[in-house]
Write a structure and sequence with these properties.
mainly beta; eight-stranded parallel sheet; seven-stranded parallel sheet; about 65% strand; globular
Amino acid sequence: GPTMLTPRVQIRAGAQSQAFIVESYGSVAGATTFTNALTIVDVAADAMVDHVKLQREALTAFHLGAMFARVDRAGTFRSHAITLGGRIARNDISATLAGEGAECTLDGLYVAEGDSLVDTHTTIDHAMPHCPSHELYKGILAGKARAVFNGKILVRQDAQKTNAKQTNKALLLSDDATINTKPQLEIFADDVKCTHG
């Protein structure tokens, strides 16, 4: 019968540590499942976390995933989200660069067919100075598949010398496939380099 899963993953990387983590989600073809996943990442000073999320559930599955990351001084956080299945798949990723020199990379790939919906919302909060961020999401849509990409970069007043880049590209393989893209820049500092496309 229908199944509901609510996993919670908490990652705490201590000072000067390194971690590579893979989260993988799958389901049996034809099974109706609802996954409500939460991942919390805390990257201490000079630490590095490389995180991969692979979602390859059946086309009858519903997947909602949220990730919250906090990166301290000179820490590095990299997220790679790969979405290959699901009737409705949503990824919310929020990263706060809370220490000077913290770095964040958010990359993603989504592939959808039939009448699937892939929904991606990202936020990178530059709270401190000298923090670079890079974001690249790519999608391939066929049939009547739909996708949403909403990427927000926030540069706070004290976050001088910020360098933030954001790119979203999609390939539509049919006339009925659609994507809605909404890049957002909110900049309150005056010595920054920020781009989106």
